[in-house]
Amino acid sequence: MTTHHALPTRSAPRLPRRARAVLLTLATTGTALGVAAAEAGGQTTDPAVAPTTGQTGAADSTPPRVTPHLPSAIVGYGLELRPFTGALVPTGKQNDLLTSAVLVGGQLGWQFHPNFALTGSFGWSPSKDRTTEFPGTAFYTGRQERVDVFQYDLGLEARLPIATTASWTATPYVGLGGGGRSYRYRDLSNAGTQTNALGYGALGLNLAPRATPIGLRLEARDNVSAFKGLHGEYTNSTARNDVQFTAGLTYRF
Q1: Residue 106 to residue 154: CA distance in whole angstroms
Q2: DSSP states of 187-201 as a string?
Q3: pLDDT tens for residues 61-91?
Q4: How far apart, in whole angstroms, are the C-alpha atoms of residue 163 and residue 147?
Q5: Cα–Cα distance between 106 and 85 in angstroms, integer?
Q6: Are 210 and 175 in contact (CB under 8 A)?
Q7: Which of the residues 55, 125, 143, 241 has the least number of beta carbons within 10 Å of its own beta carbon?
């Protein structure tokens, strides 16, 4: 009778406890990194260029393009067309000569940088000469004669765009420029047109809804002119001052 002896069995080798801990840590860390990468990729990847699958179902090897986040608060460069209306207010000695009057006109601007723009303006104001109603003056008529005041200038603006709300943008600005000022009596044929040099400083605010070409502009100007009189009666020019306040509707294109 043959006796069979069972072969001794050997248990599978076990990793040391420290090695098992290291492997468990690596696996956990890899899983967490994979989840984080998937979530980040879903937020920053442009859907228009997401990886595509071919017939075999394999993902395209081209890496997805990440689209940078650009603020939509500021409308970029371009031309600006702006009709405006307001008031022309003479000050000091100029107020003794001319009355305050309505001011209407237009502006054409070019924003060549987010913070800088060139603005050309033309304005007309129907003022009056206070002195013509008094006897002894050069053009005495017994009434205040109407004087058309024309202004044309070009200036540089420094702007600071600020996104105030989710739908509106405010852009305060300062400006400096120069040009000319012409005076012409409307009803006196024997008085010619007098033109003087002019400089100005401006302070204003542009308001515009996001993603639209329409905006509102509020501006205050301080004008200084080299005045020689309404009909050239002064031998030497003298500095005269007036201020203007305007509101305009901007169209950008």
Answers
A1: 12
A2: S-TTS--EEEEEEEE
A3: 565 554 444 343 344 558 999 999 999 999 9
A4: 43
A5: 8
A6: no
A7: 55
Alpha-carbon span 5 to 249, nearest angstrom? 106
Say what the pTM is: 0.69
Cβ-contact 45, 141 below 8 angstroms: no
The token duo for 239 is 């500095």
26-to-14, 31, 74, 92 alpha-carbon distances in Å: 19, 9, 47, 83
Residue 203: both structure tokens together: 């302070």
Encode pLDDT of 134-172 as tens digits. 998 888 999 999 999 999 999 999 999 998 888 899 999
Q: What is the CA radius of gyration of the chain?
A: 38
CA 157, 203, 175: angle at the middle one, nearest 5? 25
If you count them, how many residues does the chain have? 253
Q: Are 234 and 228 in contact (CB under 8 A)?
A: yes
In terms of DSSP H, where are the helices of 90-147? 93-97
* Cβ neighbours of 120 (radius 10 Å): 15
List all residues 6 or more positions away from 171 whose beta carbon is below 8 Å from its beta carbon: 159, 160, 161, 162, 205, 206, 207, 208
For residues 146 and 128, is the Cβ–Cβ distance under 8 A?
Answer: yes
User: In what helix (H) or strand (E) does residue 175 lie, and over which residues does it extend?
Assistant: strand 168-185
